[in-house]
Amino acid sequence: xxxxxxxxxxxxxxxxxxxxxxxxxxxxxxxxxxxxxxxxxxxxxxxxxxxxxxxxxxxxxxxxxxxxxxxxxxxxxxxxxxxxxxxxxxxxxxxxxxxxxxxxxxxxxxxxxxxxxxxxxxxxxxxxxxxxxxxxxxxxxxxxxxxxxxxxxxxxxxxxxxxxxxxxxxxxxxxxxxxxxxxxxxxxxxxxxxxxxxxxxxxxxxxxxxxxxxxxxxxx
Length: 220
What we know:
Elements: E1 13-16, E2 19-22, H1 23-27, E3 31-37, H2 43-54, H3 56-60, E4 64-70, H4 74-88, E5 96-98, H5 103-107, E6 132-136, E7 142-147, H6 156-171, E8 174-175, E9 186-188, H7 194-200, E10 206-209, E11 212-215
Parallel strand pairs: 3-4, 4-5
Antiparallel strand pairs: 1-2, 3-6, 6-7, 8-9, 9-11, 10-11
Helix pairs in contact: 2-4
């Protein structure tokens, strides 16, 4: 199955650094961020796991559960956690999935079906496509995914910005323009015609083009 935006997020059971989980059950009614790594003890991933740990409170306040995945076992994950703390000053405070049998990576189309059934003998380069961030909505559907090359560290501030947009636009009939940040003006979606817009926004809006109407962030 090829995953795309609005696809139902695959469910699975897996061992993690915080015990065994059933993914959909673990998510509950929360939003979720699953971010994957090709190998433990790799430089860029080490900085990423620590960076996200330092920002976890920002995700918590948005009702977003965070979980990592790496193509190695729990024992290696637990040893890696100490390195991450040494490097970044913060020890990951969220579960990390052990995908040593490659099942989850394949389930999310990050590895081909013929990639084998064990992480043993595989290098980070062999697993270089296991570098995707998935944002999962409370309805268990995929809202966004981004795949990064191994040499490019992920920007988790951008992930938060995207979540802010997705949570806002899930509740209001608006969209967010390029480079939008929380609190800035938003765009009335084209499906909302002017007559309906007058009821929703009695103070009016700024018309840039007939199809581009800006209003203040409705949550301000």
